[in-house]
Prior knowledge:
Oligomer: heterodimer
Number of helices of chain A: 29
Helix content of chain A: 55-70%
Largest sheet of chain A: 8 strands, mixed
CATH superfamily of one domain in chain B: Ferrous iron transport protein A (FeoA)
Number of strands of chain B: 6
Radius of gyration of chain B: 20 Å
Strand content of chain A: 5-15%
CATH architecture of one domain in chain B: Roll
CATH class of one domain in chain B: Mainly Beta
Shape of chain B: globular
CATH topology of one domain in chain B: SH3 type barrels
Number of strands of chain A: 11
Structural class of chain A: alpha/beta
Shape of chain A: elongated
Strand order of the largest sheet of chain A: 1-3-4-5-2-6-7-9
Number of helices of chain B: 9
Structural class of chain B: alpha+beta
Radius of gyration of chain A: 29 Å
Amino acid sequence: MSLSCHGAIRELHGEVEFTVAIAGNPNVGKSSIFNHLTGMGVVTANYPGKTVEVELAETHFGNRTIGVIDLPGTYALGGISEDQWVARQALLDGRPDAVILVLDATNLARNLYLGLQILDLGLPMVAALNVVDQAASRGIQVDIERLSEILGNPVIPTVATRGSGLDILMTQVIARATNPTLLAPRIRYSVDVEAAIAKLEAALSPHDGRPHQLSARAVAILLLEGDPEAGAWLAGVDSSGDLARLRDELFNLLRDVRGEEPPLLLARERHGLSGLIASEVERREVRRPLVVDRLWRLTTAPLTGLPILGLVLAGIFGFLFYVGDWLSVWFNNFWTTFASPAIRWPFHILFGDGIFSKTLLWGFDAGVNAALSVGIPYVLTFYVLLALLEDTGYLNAAAFLTDQIMHRMGLHGRAVIPLVAGAGCNVPAIMGTRVLSSMRERVIASTLVTLTPCSARTAVILGAVSLTVGWEAALGIYGVTFALALLTGIGMHRFLPGRSTGLVMEMFPFRRPAALPILKKTWYRFHHFAVVATPIVLGGSIILGGLYETGLLWKLAIPLRPIMEGWLGLPAVAGLTLIVAILRKELALQLLVTLAMVQHGPQASNLLSFMRPDQIVVYALVNTIYVPCAATIAVLARELGWPRALLISAFTIILALLVGGAARGVFALIGW
Amino acid sequence: MPLPGPTPPTDEMLEDCLQAIHRLELQGQSASTAEVAAFARIPLEAAEEVLRELGRRGLLQIGSTNGTILNLEGRRQAVGILRRHRLSERLLADVLGLPWDRVHDEAMRLEHALTPEAEARLATLLKNPATCPHGAPIPENNGSVAPQATSGLDRIAAGARVQIQQIVEEEPTFLRYLASLGLLPRAEIHVEEIAPFGGPLLVRVGDATYAIGRDVAAKILVQQVGPPLEPQRLRRQRRHGWGQRSGRGTGRGRGD
């Protein structure tokens, strides 16, 4: 559930003694620190219209209650990208008593940029110099005392995945948060920039009510950076226009003197200063690159990168097929032996054996079973793998290698992440399109995700086609679906207005994944999936059960006959199950067998007894392509809005019918 | 009552589209209708109509199958608009003091209103500036552009060390995003790897490594400062040889 950020932060402030915010670049161990500090009671909140989330939690240290705000990982604070905007806004709105700045000890210079911005805002800070172990193994030693002296704030070495240094960090954070005196950081930009800041600062200091109660220096810097919020505040308090004139004068002066726009100039100064600080506190030994680093480079090298990517993808699918399948069988046995009788019994007692009782059992027994037996073996397993790929940094290597093909579809390499996730389950994959920056990219990626066969559709392809017709036909269905997705992507890129944004993405060195963060991430995502999917599956199953038990289902099939029998050449009962499968795709096959047995007797458990191979292929093809399922439509609507969700759904239905009809025609032509 | 058929494109649309095609050509690409429409901020159908009109006015190369290409007259006119655009940006930034991130949008309007006489007087007033506020060169009024000894980052061989000279992008948020990563003019970067099949580049800036898509790399103009560390890799770069200037040497004399 998402809360509004303003409200959630205010509520958090009311419940705790003080709050800390955790800031840092992406993938520097920020979430490891957050996870170590907090338990399961994490609330996510977002700003209206923004998809990047802020996590809030309460924690106890010693005998104190502390509110923790986890900002999105960003390289800078500002209005440039959504994550930067959200990080800046939550930091200013949250008015934390202290900021934990997580620094990557292996890349100090770039990481300090964000730290300088936080110091410019005048916020009390404690820096966690993380992954000091990795830095040491690469021959980098950091003079912690000197760094802390320069930053004017404590610096604590940590290895967050092991939890080492975090107790000292929290002790320092509490000391910093409860001690109101602000230490003066020894951070000064070049003379002309400082002169401009000082002039503006002096002019601003008489004006109270500065935005977020920032210092005059902080607002002066924001104004020179062209910050819109500070600019709006200035326009509000400055009726004479003197301040705005001064700002413009200084802005133009800086530009003329330095030949660069002040916003870029400040970025340059911060980078320069970060580099200077890093070179002063770092001692580097020249070492041969670590074996792990050299091996890691193979993942992006031209000759080895693509074969490794192929192996990784094959590994994911293999793992899902074998481990997922094994778990699924195990879970089903468990359910029919223990859970199902335990659920049936109270319904039996309360409602007897009538239609009402049977209808409810469709939902509470079969429905819950189905949701869990896809959810636990396939979705949960997939999330563990996904977290592993993310935490090692491999996903970025995959994004690097696939950027070109994604580009043809108006996306960039980062879209590979949700597309791979879509092979597990479309619901979390569509949520995962949030890694993309524009709505256009998210619409294209979401459409492609809905065309990606998820584990439920894979179950139908394998169960219906591979078992009865042969694996070649099953492979053919994957081939057709892949080609359709590719063509759809290219077509959407061609016809949707707008253009694609380019790829600029950090590549991370190999990081040894740690169990706890992976499990937490997996649980967090699975929880999201369960919240969206379970009610729909439960409710849908009950409605479906009602239609089935009352016999209304057969009547509903009548208007579909022209399409199912006439156009697709499928038995009416098969068409019916396709409609029903909108609840859950794997239900199509189960229901097909069940209904066929009702109609034709027990020998119908073999599909070939009432369908020809070509019909089975058409059936599986249509089932794979048309609207994924109710839960996917729901999440499409939540992420992209109802009009887009319905358009995407309608598109896939039409595509499925066209392809199904075409396949039937082709099969007839070749006399199969 | 709706008019029969599409409305004829305005002069503004024609000029914007001309500039769009020219800009894409400068990046070594031919323009697709969608890209032209996106640049000129007009609907796709309108862009199609504009391209037809440009063809009727004899500004396009006839018989181009791969996207739209300007002919000599088209290029001359496009450079003229570019000059008016960048002069307008200078006026807006230097004289009128408009904020840095708004000059491009404002100049998109102003550039159409300048007559040749106004353009000449503006250039005199601004003391014939060499570059726009974003650092891009302003073409001379005879249409020639001062040569730059730089090449797009996308044409650099793996292993080379280069210095960023200029970023050809007027979207301020994008410039600032690159700046927050340390990718700004005068920054030195090391091209580590180039993905096959026209994929992105892997570049190192300090201790950080970034993947940069080819289209973004094309907007980053660089000058080579160090030789490729592994010269044998150069052979792989043959297919990017189009229009490549050897970054070494030629650019050294340029003072700015």
